[in-house]
Design a protein that fits this description.
homodimer
Chain lengths: 510, 510
């Protein structure tokens, strides 16, 4: 019987490829989100943040944002660029933000839903460095960026490319976004995040999506096809590039995760309640601005509150404070009925036990806290300075486990199995029962990275650690990667667009 | 300012010793436990398990248990040793189990509360092997057992010794419990778990506790001082040694965690609902027996439902199925108002990322599922075959993080910090504010194992992984260990007791 089971299983798995993994699919959290604060406490944070916005306000360095907010009724002090918000204006504006929206991918089977209990797992975006066990840590570069996107494409549990895995520092700073966009379009058919550092980078993303999807800007506004992260410059400041990016995204109807970077003890108060108050004030101000730019603009409430190590000033991630702040942020986002964005983070410098338990703290608190989009869901290392190939695999395994955990347990006559337990009786075993044989192939989560063999078999096959196995897995995924088909006419049009724009951005170079 | 902060911090830490850790203390979970099943689904499992107990019953190999259950109204079939329970009898008997009880330690500052939201973290109990990075894996032995208990004593986050870290296979099998008990009493002043494999091992524990604490058996019954785990032999069987141990413990008023070992797909149905039904039937039968032996006997509802790898038959731990089963078990235990026992488990063969994420799945699901006692909370490796010194430290760090996570966020005028945020204003920083300076020393969780330094500093100091650091920590704790004082008269009386009992158990040996 055991032999027969093995054969049947292997036949099924052979069809999946060399790395066993879950299929691409929508993930829905049907469990009640965790709450760590009372409704009264959430209301206290809400009211304190409204008081901050009314009394102190936000320094808005971007002129267009200031004048838009002024027209909408905010009080602008031209002497110090301070914008103060009447509480009723904030309450009114944030009400137009949708609780749910969709995101197109160039492969429609990979379209995404944001909100309504759906979860989106995005790969890490923005690191300056890249790392793997064989070659160590190095500056971000175009070749590694492309390989990373290839592995992201191969990992079914990742829904979205998260906005460039590592900065391609070997390319021109002012035009490398074009190279990233073109690579993201070519190398994966998943949705990808664009850059919002300045309005022209947003415009280029939208133009290239228009070419890729064969849709007008108006069509893209109705069916958004990219997303970006906008960080306030905590405390209480919005700079020019981020202001430009915000306005360009919202005008184009593309969603933004508005994410204050409130490190408790450094850029925000040393108390978590204080850091959350400041986070909430900044998030509400940016959400208000997005709604002023374009009522109904899709946004996410971003939470990133963590703390610094008070001995060294180093940021800490995946800490107990981080977990509590994320769960409270989810409660705040639900109060506003706006999808919640959080992250899978660690301060570890290696793909080791610390990376695993800090990411575990992040994933449990964000997912059970009701998150809609997990940015950096896979790959982030070293407080976000590095994209690691092995961490990408480690995180993909943890994401698969959480996805399986979110599938509710079926409870019915058949699954309660009273008749089967009766049939087996005291002292028997269930391996050979009809109930088992009819269900064993899909009964349990099948790991990609975990090794469940006994000590002897594990030792004989090399006693490889989880990190060693992750190294083999990403190399295998890269080796078996096949570029998803893209119409050659579209690819050529994209190449022409990129060439033209590079010539405009830095004439005569390249 | 940063320099000043560093100095103040170091002065405070110098008083704690070489390894920074939290003080010993009571841990209370004030958050609402997670639920993954509806009340109706829990009721379906309850009713299905009562049907199993009425129709199939349990095979009880222990004669005294059978006759006690018969006197209490159960139906006993002498031809196959089957005991069937009327649902109303089960409902009536389990009602006498207390929802809360206490456990004495020889140091009263380490007394424990079971139930009422309190959490007890017990070190791993029962492994056959022991492991550390320097010496590798070896058979359990007396010297390692003692060293392990010493490190358990040193780790403040561990509340209870979990019933012998590794089997001292170099000692006589039928009397080594005496050596373990004596070592546990000498080497730590924390509460410790006894062995229930046969009634005489329980009796020896109680006699030795009576000597240690200077209390009569009647006093110990009123104030229990040890605890044990009783496993049913799933499916649906109670063997002689476990039956003896159960009766002896309950008669003596010492608490038992009644824990079916229901591996889904092997000793229980391949469906999680079915495995939970069988777990619940076995747990209710054993709880009923304990209450028949002694109404009001302290018990815990034990959940251990996990699954096997259907390809190899290997048990898997810390899986998504395990997490769901633990949360559902917590819901069942709360339905009966009985404290819930669960575990921190992994199938990994190394102290690697897999060990960390499987333990992370275990800790989040059990703690947020409302657990009262986490057995194997620290140290378990290889599906419980091995006690690892490095895993002990890894788990202690994760337990500290969960303990810190369970401290609710304070939300009040002071912590909301609106005035401080106003004082700092846009673009400032919070390092030097009075609000920060008054709070920074205890503001955030301080890790024992995590390294939050930046990549450069971490690399310069040897680029040690978390597992390497865990190795240094347990050796440091062992090096600085001091045996807690024990009255020499008591120790001598214990030695005499052990010598006399060994002579009784195997005359002329030793």
């Amino acid at each position: 019987m055991a032999r027969n089971m093995l054969n049947r299983r292997e036949r099924r798995l052979a069809t999946v490829g060399t790395v066993r993994q879950m299929p691409f699919g929508n993930v829905v959290n049907r469990y009640t989100p965790i709450a760590i604060m009372s409704a009264d406490e959430i209301e206290s944070i809400h009211l304190a943040s409204l008081r901050l916005l009314a009394e102190i306000g936000i320094e808005v360095l971007h002129e267009e944002s200031r004048s838009l907010l002024k027209s909408a009724g905010a009080e602008v002090d031209a002497s110090n660029l301070r914008v103060r918000f009447d509480p009723s204006m904030v309450e009114e504006k944030i009400r137009t933000a949708p609780s749910r929206f969709t995101l197109q991918a160039r492969n429609p089977a990979r379209n995404l839903t944001v909100g309504d209990g759906s979860l989106i797992f995005a790969s890490t975006g923005g690191p300056a460095f890249v790392h793997d066990m064989d070659r160590g840590r190095r500056a971000g570069n175009y070749a590694d960026m492309c390989d990373y996107i290839r592995v992201v494409h191969q990992l079914n549990v990742i829904h979205q490319e998260g906005g460039c895995p590592c900065e391609p520092t070997d390319l021109q700073p002012d035009s490398r976004h074009l190279d990233f966009y073109h690579a993201a379009i070519r190398l994966t058919d998943k949705n990808w995040q664009c850059w919002a550092l300045g309005g022209y980078r947003v415009e280029d993303a939208i133009e290239m999506l228009s070419i890729t999807l064969g849709q007008t800007r108006e069509q893209l506004r109705e069916n958004p096809a990219t997303l970006t992260i906008i960080n306030s410059n905590s405390p209480l400041r919005l700079d020019v590039p981020m202001g430009e990016g915000l306005c360009a995204m919202s005008r184009a109807g593309q969603p933004i995760a508005l994410t204050p970077f409130t490190l408790s003890g450094a850029m925000s108060p040393v108390t978590i309640a204080g850091a959350l108050t400041q986070q909430n004030a900044e998030a509400l101000a940016l959400i208000t601005l997005a709604q002023v730019v374009s009522p109904g603009a899709p946004v996410l409430y971003g939470g990133f509150t963590s703390n610094v190590d008070m001995r060294t000033g180093s940021p800490a991630f995946g800490t107990p404070e981080y977990a509590k702040a994320q769960i409270a942020s989810g409660q705040l986002a639900r109060r506003y009925n706006i999808p919640f964005r959080s992250s899978n983070v660690t301060a570890s410098n290696a793909v080791d036990v610390q990376a695993a338990y800090e990411s575990g703290m992040s994933l449990w608190s964000t997912i059970m806290g009701g998150v809609s989009l997990i940015e950096h869901a896979a790959g982030w290392l070293e407080g976000g300075l590095t994209a690691s190939f092995e961490k990408l695999i480690l995180d993909a395994e943890m994401l698969q486990m959480m996805r399986s955990f979110l599938e509710p347990v079926r409870v019915d006559e058949d699954s309660l199995a009273v008749d089967t337990i009766s049939e087996v009786g005291p002292g028997g075993h269930f391996f050979g029962t009809g109930h088992t044989l009819a269900r064993f192939e899909n009964a349990f989560y099948e790991p990609m990275l975990s090794d469940w063999r006994n000590f002897e078999n594990w030792s004989e096959s090399g006693a490889r650690s989880g990190t060693d196995r992750a190294n083999a897995i990403w190399k295998d995924l890269l080796r078996t990667y096949e570029q998803p088909p893209l119409d050659p006419g579209i690819d050529e049009a994209l190449s022409e667009y990129v060439a033209r724009r590079k010539e405009e951005i830095h004439p005569g170079r390249d």
